[in-house]
Amino acid sequence: MAIEPNPEAVILTEIMLTVFRVNGRLLEKGDQLVEPLNLTSARWQVLGAVALAEKPLSAPQIAEAMGITRQGAQKQLNKLEEDGFFEQSLNPRHQRSPLYALTELGNCTFAKVMTLEAIWANGLVAGLPLQDLRKTLQTLNSIYKRLDSPVPRKGGRS
Hints:
Blueprint lengths: L6 H28 L6 H13 L5 H8 L3 H13 L3 E4 L9 E4 L1 H22 L4 H17 L12
């Protein structure tokens, strides 16, 4: 027996498809934005995780903060460290999972990236009502939180 989605579920599906498309374009445009700084969107994401945390992080902590796999975070960390953006230190909580801190180059590059991002973001939101942006953020955060909750089933077995 096929279950028909309710009107809210139909809209949610449209939101998910749009988020996938927007994510792809953000990564593409992000790559173009940070390419002059020897970064990609993936590298920017990892750099940002540590910069925003304002403390050294392990690969699993970076992965969790940015919603990526530990292996993906480690791959980017290796490249970023090789290029001088990060330095490793011993993790007192886990011998096999070092902590990564931004170097002077990493901090300087992140500041440049955020300047470029501010200019780009200002252009993207020009003419969009602030209350619409806030409501969009609130809705996406609510959906994000529900992704870790058990899905209630109407009229079916749980």
